[in-house]
Design goal:
45% helix, alpha/beta, 4 strands, 13% strand
């Protein structure tokens, strides 16, 4: 699969945005369920908690943009301990569009952005 196609298949969306048909398979990539979002309305196909940053890393990061580069490095190291889940996510992407769903307010500095980068490098 070409890089462009792979890039287009992996989308990002906040859990507070309405699901859409173009989302494809919706995968929640946070360790905690998004506050205030009903499971019946979230249209989450898979909840891959194992691919979320550890509680310790999440708390250390605290969505501080000044810690972003170090967060990405530490998260990449952590995530490779879960190769089976990473492979499973890669398989879903090869089948069609996948939207990584996250709850962070910061749309540029969050675990879904970092995971997408990891997936694109890994492909």
């Amino acid at each position: 699969m070409s890089e462009k196609i792979f890039h287009e298949r992996v989308k990002l969306k906040r859990a507070y945005e309405s699901p859409a048909a173009v989302d494809g398979t919706r995968v929640l990539v946070d360790r905690l369920w998004p506050r205030g979002v009903k499971k019946t309305e979230a249209s989450i196909d898979y909840w891959m908690k194992e691919l979320a940053p550890s509680t310790e890393l999440r708390q250390w990061f605290g969505h501080d943009p000044a810690r972003w580069e170090e967060f990405r490095r530490r998260y990449a190291a952590e995530i490779h301990e879960h190769r089976d889940e990473l492979d499973r996510l890669g398989d879903l992407i090869r089948q069609g569009a996948v939207t990584l769903v996250y709850s962070a307010h910061d749309e540029a500095h969050n675990d879904a952005v970092a995971l997408r980068e990891i997936l694109l490098r890994r492909r």
